[in-house]
Amino acid sequence: MRHIIRNIAIFDGTGSGLVAGAVVVENDRIAAVLHDAAAIAAIEADNVIDGQGGTLMPGMVDSHTHLTWGSSVEKIYHQFILPPEELKVAAWRNARVLLDHGFTSLYSAGALGDQIEPELARAIEAGETPGPRLVPSTLERSPEGEEGVETGDVFNGRGPDAMRAFVAYCAAEGVKSLKLVISGEDALKPGSSGDILYTDEEMLAAGEAAKEAGLWIATHAYSPRAIELALEAGARILYHCSFADDAAIDAMAAKKHEIFYAPGPGVSVAALEASPPPHINMTSMKASAAERLELEKALVPKLKARGVRILPGGDYGFPFNPHGRNARDLEHFVTYYGFTPAEALSAATMLGGQLMGQQVGRVKPGYLADLLLVDGDPTQDVRILQDANNIKMIMLGGRMHKSPAAQPVTA
Ligand SMILES: [Zn+2]
């Protein structure tokens, strides 16, 4: 099957400006990117798509996804922990909702059930259910007896052997990235973000075992010490890092070719905007969000200047921050962190693709054809990506998830 998408302006993922041209897709990959009118006219294809002057760009990547956090723009749950059957339904729905909103890749930051994501990732890959590419995870791990994020997991004992057992369990489950909660969480327990939940020995054991098993590590880390532990363990991605000091910034910059960083502004902004019903107390969550946002406004530009790869996405799925609004993170990168729209788009596409470890996130021959056709120019205003109606086509691996509207019939 060969498609040609023409009459488009191409955003290739790198951050450079739009270039007029056409893109040829063969089977699951991008076969050619053409700019010459005669070359474009000479292409024969099974399916010719007139982009009507819209922007063709790579699908977006969410770097910190919790599909089992139930709420989406289609269905809000007013309880956080769902019964097992509903949990699975919600996760499968949320995968499709994210794809409907232009996200073609997700990197999981942990699940509330242990087999849901590996099963879902397999079903998506087999074409049994619509959804983005998924790096699946399982229960978030915090140690036994520690405050912070409650996992309820039986593998939360102490010591290096318990860490190795958790990694072995994740590998057996078919997980690709495991999640370690190194810091406490102020939003859940005020004052706990400075707490350190693991020892060096535990983190090193987890890091070694994960490397041997071919698994990646994602980390919930706030303080300089938590960041140090994450880096020691060889974490692939660090979340939040709000309290990083100059030494932590240096340490992250020294590993800029190995790590990714996702601050996750969306949940903070949404928490500040939320007006919960009287029986829900969001006081500590709002205070934590305001503090973090303020710290990250200073921190993120410093890390960006040092060349650390900074990615949008994170912690959608609360009733006040439902899945499907994830593209708001790109606007937050512009508003709070001083990114240009093109830099925010590049972070959501090219850099996200590097996190996925697959040939995604670029409009480039040989890359997987995960493509969006957007009505308008997101390099001028990233907010247009927040309305799924502006995304006229969603292609995942050369297969059409959303076809462009039929051409208008002229009399
Ligand atoms: Zn998270």
From TrEMBL:
<dbReference type="Pfam" id="PF01979">
    <property type="entry name" value="Amidohydro_1"/>
</dbReference>
<protein>
    <submittedName>
        <fullName>Amidohydrolase family protein</fullName>
    </submittedName>
</protein>
<dbReference type="InterPro" id="IPR051781">
    <property type="entry name" value="Metallo-dep_Hydrolase"/>
</dbReference>
<dbReference type="InterPro" id="IPR032466">
    <property type="entry name" value="Metal_Hydrolase"/>
</dbReference>
<keyword id="KW-0378">Hydrolase</keyword>
<dbReference type="InterPro" id="IPR006680">
    <property type="entry name" value="Amidohydro-rel"/>
</dbReference>
<feature type="region of interest" description="Disordered">
    <location>
        <begin position="127"/>
        <end position="154"/>
    </location>
</feature>
<feature type="domain" description="Amidohydrolase-related">
    <location>
        <begin position="55"/>
        <end position="399"/>
    </location>
</feature>
<dbReference type="InterPro" id="IPR011059">
    <property type="entry name" value="Metal-dep_hydrolase_composite"/>
</dbReference>
<dbReference type="GO" id="GO:0016810">
    <property type="term" value="F:hydrolase activity, acting on carbon-nitrogen (but not peptide) bonds"/>
</dbReference>
